[in-house]
Design brief:
Four copies of one chain form a homotetramer.
Chain A lengths: L1 E7 L2 E8 L2 E4 L10 H10 L4 H8 L4 E3 L9 E2 L5 E6 L3 H10 L4 H8 L4 E6 L4 E2 L5 E3 L6 E2 L2 E8 L2 E10 L1 E2 H6 L4 H5 L5 E9 L10 E8 L2 E9 L7 H9 L7 E5 L17 E6 L3 E9 L1
Parallel strand pairs in A: 6-17, 8-14, 9-19
Antiparallel strand pairs in A: 1-2, 1-5, 1-14, 2-3, 3-4, 6-7, 10-13, 11-12, 11-17, 12-14, 15-16, 15-18, 18-19
Helix pairs in contact in A: 1-2
Keywords (chains A, B, C, D): Hydrolase, Metal-binding
Pfam families (chains A, B, C, D): FAA_hydrolase
InterPro entries (chains A, B, C, D): FAH, Fumarylacetoacetase-like_C, Fumarylacetoacetase_C_sf
Chain lengths: 289, 289, 289, 289
């Protein structure tokens, strides 16, 4: 099942997309207003989120499917977001081009330890359809389309689409500037929904694509498959959660393989669409921050 | 003035140390329970925190000075913490010893852009007297004593003492692992108080010292002065706040210059004391996480 | 000055009406989002709310005056509401007509102790322009237009307009049913603004009027003056706050003198307008609950 | 099962008493910190609270039984509390003695509509072992021992013991003063636990007793049975929840039948113990407010 967080006039509502349509779960249970509420109830009762939802569908109210594309759509969870890097082969080459010290990227491949880093607070994460940011002091800015793993109490409960906005010029100048290239105003977006882990057959075999348009013209359009990851989702999650204080709900983005080439940089007003097979398409425009 | 956050049975109280003693400000105003409350009132009324406090002292209740050392002492603010690196000369040499790619550290000195990074969430920050963490998967762990700048609405309103716990073995293995070396369970502590910016004559001329003891024996004892910083506090704050979504209250640690040599690593039970002239002494024990 | 609480897409903003127009105070200070924030800052700094506001007007952003009438208008404070009864002569006669035991109402006049009662939680209080409720199990329902006193830390800081919805049939059946006649779903509304106490010359000399319309026809239209109160505002506040646990912000409605006669009862869809000289007009429709 | 809310250093923990002892449920599930959390998970998954708990007992940690009597004991829920009056025959006689207008009490018996009223906010409710209040402006003060019904989403999920503190002198002076006699600082206490509705065979057949001691001497000691109620628990709950905006969790006290005679009034320092068969004993001292 796919879960959408709606928010109208500030009031949150949880909706679920099943084979039969889109349903308002908050209408079935007043207390079920956010995906976090569902995660919490499922955790305490040791059930899967889809299992809990199944029992509620009878009382849920059908919604127009387009609600899930509209203004009311919010980020599916409001949580700390981490990300992994150097997890796809293609990304390695791109990074070599950008950095004067490429060896460290190659070393990450060859090491047992993945690269994971703090990516965003909820306040720095924008809703679907909202503008993501490019730093005014950066010259080379790209979106990084990524499969997002959604964790409840440290366990994988779902998947989402993530946009890990990055300043390649700042990161490329010095690897010690990576946090500035990654963590800034409006640096991340996730959505449009969370697909339950139970309903994803294999997270390591999902088509992923990205298009970037400017003034109606497509400037970038490419696709890959999460099967090209050189780390497993579980391995990345283990690295994030080990020795860490992981909040009840958290998101880990798993790295990118779709990278516009060096001649491209984002500009204000650009439109980014990131799609993941079986999950959905995350759309954002671009604003300078 | 120096502000202490007390917390007894979960109830917060704000105390202030003046030349005349320690006073309970919450006794003067019920609504003034945290330093954040004081920052907020001062911000909205465009006054300094000391100025607001001055008017409240008449109704504040004297407290035993030892309260500010006891169990009731909490981190002075509960906020996002960032840190800066490579800001003292001595630190550079230490880093060269630890890393196979030392050039990047030298580059930071020569660059206009400082190194700032996301250090800790409130949940990863421990109170004074509480144990800070060393990662079980790390072999070389050190505290980093630092001057902490306290920001309200992006402006410098005070200073505190910070312990930026670091795994030098993980950071040294690959600079891309820096976030794992820095952001983990119990990775930070600040305190014991916040000294108002107005009452610090020059933050760039403060004695700073650290002692580390094990089983009653002092293993490390050294001192420096914040005057040895090669960046100004304002410059580091500018770097943190630019293009960023800084919360109402935030802390920026300004880098370290006191580094135990390579033969030393922290162990469970060690006692760390970090002192800053005119502010106070932050004490923590060590626990493996 | 008159303070309006706006709420767009769930985000609160505080606006103030001065002689020069309507201004967005949140634009001047991010942290000043609600009237409660202003009360808090004024309380901690021992200043009046108008005094704090005066200093902020330079940075406040002008708003269209009609904003204060629109969808974005919220109840000016979100707090516990109490009300007083039997405070106007006219109300006494009306009550005698309704009750089989009228002596108790007369006794309230002759007693030192006023009648004050718990009226509404924030969850039972509706915003201006939103529908107030009439109980489905009640036959005789009326609005009670009242001057509302706004308290911060127990002190009078402003005035608002209140609608103390009442089931006269339930109250009339037995005085022990008073709480059921008074405290129920959507039983109260306050607004449209709070006028600062400093800018009200005499709360005991304010014209108060009410009109009730159905299908465009005015069914009730009458006026009175708060000067007809037989208790002072201070006396009623003292009665409410004595021996009580009054929250930081609270509202006390001071009783009614405008009562539709026995032949009138509210119906779904009716429109109620309650005006108070120098404060504003509170409008609500009616819905059965 | 019986649920205890513990709170140590401000951190809440939920414990359950089964036939096998007292167990820490928060140790089994981090997110299960309050009884409200359990109610919420049970509501969303349409299970009983005992059923959810059963599955968690395997991972729960045994606690010393005395924990449930100690300082860490908090009110079992933090919610709006309503109360019912005139629900026991004995109470009627007592009320006739106190009031000049006793007919209204008799009328309540003969009417379909029970008397229910707003009793307390969480801020006016004290924990077990904490002092309840008597108003300094009252001459005749008594505790009212009552069976408390605990509601989740309007449904009965458990029972607790309640102390509905009352000023009989203020109530007796005029029935319109009832709210002042009932709603004031520290006017209520509930606890020590909530017994699940599923494990109470018949709430209308529970022994209830109260003792009041002063300086070690028992001044009042009497017992009754909830079977002497003239209304059913369901009837009272229906009256409270109809046409009302009932919060997710709420408590309804069901009236008293144990009343010290007219010669007795509470004094500061008195100790009150209220017991209910199968639930527990709620102890409070007395303080003037």
């Amino acid at each position: 099942m796919r879960y959408y967080q709606l928010r109208e006039d500030g009031t949150p509502r949880l909706a679920v997309q099943t084979a039969d349509g889109l349903f308002d779960l908050t209408a079935a249970k007043d207390r079920l207003q956010t995906l976090e509420d569902l995660f919490c109830a499922a955790d305490i009762t040791d059930r899967s989120i889809d299992d809990v939802t199944d029992d509620l569908l009878e009382d849920a109210v059908p919604l127009d499917a387009e609600v899930a594309d509209g203004d009311a759509l919010a980020a599916p969870v409001s949580s700390e977001i981490w990300a992994a890097g150097v997890t796809y082969r293609i990304s390695e080459e791109a990074r070599q081009a950008e950095s004067d010290t490429p060896d460290m990227y190659i070393d990450v491949y060859e090491s047992d330890r993945p690269e994971v880093f703090f990516k965003a607070t909820p306040e720095r994460t924008v809703d679907p359809e909202e503008p993501v940011g490019i730093r005014a002091d950066s010259e080379w800015d790209v979106p990084e389309p990524e499969l997002g793993v959604v964790l409840s109490d440290g366990d994988i409960v779902g998947y989402t689409v993530g946009n890990d906005m990055s300043s390649r010029s700042i990161e490329g100048e010095n690897p010690l500037y990576l946090p500035q290239a990654k963590v800034y105003d409006k640096c991340c977006s996730i959505g449009p929904c969370v697909r339950s882990a139970d309903s994803i057959e294999d997270p390591h075999d999902l088509e992923m694509w990205m298009t970037i348009s400017r003034d109606g013209e497509v400037l970038y359009d490419d696709a890959t498959n999460t099967g090209k990851m050189v780390r497993s989702v579980e391995e990345l999650v283990d690295c994030y959660t080990a020795h860490n204080a992981v909040p009840d709900v958290a998101v880990l983005l798993t790295g990118t393989s779709l990278v516009p080439d060096e001649s491209f940089t984002l500009e204000e007003g650009d439109e980014i669409e990131i799609g993941l097979e079986g999950i959905g398409t995350l759309s954002n425009t671009v604003v300078e921050v």
